[in-house]
């Protein structure tokens, strides 16, 4: 997935409404690049190794899809 193909909203990532409500509740507005790239891949069942700087949202990128397991 290229940078031009990254979803620009959490809604576009394919997360269910219950998760989207909580994301909005805690104040997240748009996914970070690591989230935009990781979440769709993880939701599709693929394995992923991601690397990003501290504070970029890696934990949410990996945890949000896990909530659907």
Uncertain runs: none
Rg computed from alpha carbons, rounded to a whole number of angstroms: 11 Å
The biggest sheet amounts to: none
Binned, the helix content reads 40-55%
Give the percentage of residues in beta strands: under 5%
Through-space gap between termini:
24 Å
SSE topology:
Layout: H1 17-25, H2 33-43, H3 58-66
Helix pairs in contact: 2-3
Keywords for this structure?
single chain, globular, mainly alpha, 3 helices, about 70 residues
Overview of the molecule:
This protein is mainly α and 69 residues long. The chain contains three helices and no strands. The chain has helices at residues 17-25, 33-43, 58-66. Helix 2 packs parallel to helix 3. The chain is globular and about 25 Å long. The mean pLDDT is 90.
Gist of the model:
The protein has 69 residues and is mostly helical. The protein has helices spanning 17-25, 33-43, 58-66. The longest helix has 11 residues, at 33-43.
